[in-house]
Recover the amino acids of this structure.
């Protein structure tokens, strides 16, 4: 039997779930991102009254993924339409620019 980790995010802020991912070496970063998308989707589905948006914020040279790479897969397009539409994947730099004037708890 597989033990499932508890659904959690790193920061909750004004109805937004933020999950931070760091990876400074290569390897399974792509698989980790897919796993994180599934976990965040599950979290959103189980907390619809408290969360309306989620961000996966990545940092490090080991993760070289942007939305366009995932969107090249037909299954990802379908999943994004049905499940991932409230989730954005941003680099740490993109996240800082978007929320530069906000006081997000750490």
């Amino acid at each position: 039997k597989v033990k499932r980790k508890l659904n959690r995010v790193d920061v909750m802020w004004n109805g937004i779930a933020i999950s931070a991912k760091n990876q400074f070496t290569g390897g399974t970063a792509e698989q980790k991102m897919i796993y994180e998308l599934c976990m965040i989707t599950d979290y959103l589905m189980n907390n619809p009254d408290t969360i309306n948006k989620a961000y996966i914020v990545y940092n490090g040279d080991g993760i070289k993924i942007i939305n366009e790479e995932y969107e090249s897969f037909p299954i990802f397009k379908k999943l994004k339409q049905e499940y991932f539409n409230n989730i954005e994947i941003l680099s740490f730099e993109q996240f800082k620019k978007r929320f530069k004037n906000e006081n997000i708890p750490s």
Q: What stands out?
A: The longest helix spans residues 29-46.
